[in-house]
Amino acid sequence: LSELTLGHTAVDFWHVTDRPHNVDWVYEVDADGFYDLLVERLERFGG
């Protein structure tokens, strides 16, 4: 449990809390490349 939230995600996008960063934020994604990689990996499990 968090002292800030219960069942929610809190994002300190503007770094107000002075806590160290603990996440990588994705701004752009190669959607076609991601989908191709996902399908390739899933085929290993179910063919």
From TrEMBL:
Q: What GO annotations for molecular function exist for this entry?
A: hydrolase activity, hydrolyzing N-glycosyl compounds
Classification via InterPro entries = Ribo_hydro-like
Which SUPFAM superfamilies does UniProt cross-reference here?
Nucleoside hydrolase (SSF53590)
What name goes with this protein? Uncharacterized protein
- The organism is marine metagenome
Which lineage ranks, top first, belong to the organism behind this chain? unclassified sequences, metagenomes, ecological metagenomes
